[in-house]
Amino acid sequence: MLKETLKNHHIILASGSPRRQDFFKSLNLEFEVILKPTEEIYPEQLQREAITDFLSKLKAKPFKDEIKSYTILVTSDTIVWHNNKALGKPKNEQEAFNMLKSISNATHDVISSICFTTKDNQKVVNTTTKVTFKTLSDEEIWFYIKTFKPYDKAGAYGIQEWIGAIGITNIEGSYNNVVGLPTHLLYETLNTIAKES
User: Fold this and answer.
1) Strand partners, 116
2) 194 vs 9: CA distance, rounded Å
3) Nearest CA among 103, 74, 71 for reference residue 15
4) 65, 77, 120, 152: which is the annotated catalytic residue?
5) Using one digit for the tens of pLDDT, what is the confidence trace for 17-50?
């Protein structure tokens, strides 16, 4: 359906994430992946979706002068928000352990923003999913870190991996958002942009 709606558009996904690329494929979208490095630094005063909104727009900036008519650039960002701070990607084993220990036996928010940039407009949408973990033992946390090496994942975990299967007791909101992209928002917004252009 969406493929037909967007047949006159060129979709660019600016993400190296295989999970995000798989979601685009699952929606039967034709798209091109183009990567431009961006230093993901945001103002300290920002919180929650203000962070992901800012970063998703920041990732679109290097493309600013290259976007042609009927091109839609998609950039996105996801954070884990817990105890009033953003948990990014862990730099090492100990940082991953500390993050997983902090979200053990607690509920945290997974917040994603998607930025859609065209030649003349930019639109940002976001959503939040609440995820609850059981009490994780130190042995479970270390087994997961050593086996799955979750250094490319915000909050140091992938919901689709072993830790999600054994540890998550409740989810409120979009599961796909926690994997890496709120596909319902992607679908709705691309439909809207296509009809407006």
Assistant:
1) 74, 123
2) 8
3) 74
4) 77
5) 888 999 999 999 899 999 998 998 999 999 999 9
Residue 130 in tokens: 């609440």
162 token code pair: 């072993």
Of all helices (H) and strands (E), which one includes residue 179?
Answer: helix 175-179
Q: Can you give the length of the chain in residues?
A: 197
Average pLDDT across the chain, whole number: 94
The pLDDT score that the predictor gives to residue 146 is 97
In three-state secondary structure terms, 40 is: coil
**CA dihedral of residues 169, 171, 175, 179 (deg, nearest 10):** -60
> Would you give the DSSP letter of residue 76?
E
Question: Using CA atoms, how far apart are residues 25 and 158, in angstroms rounded to an integer?
Answer: 20
Determine whether 22 is an active site residue.
no
CA distances (Å), 86 to each of 29, 89, 122, in order?
Answer: 31, 10, 25
Q: Using alpha carbons, select from 138, 112, 91 the residue that is nearest to residue 23.
A: 112
Q: Can you tell me whether residue 18 is helix, strand or coil?
A: helix
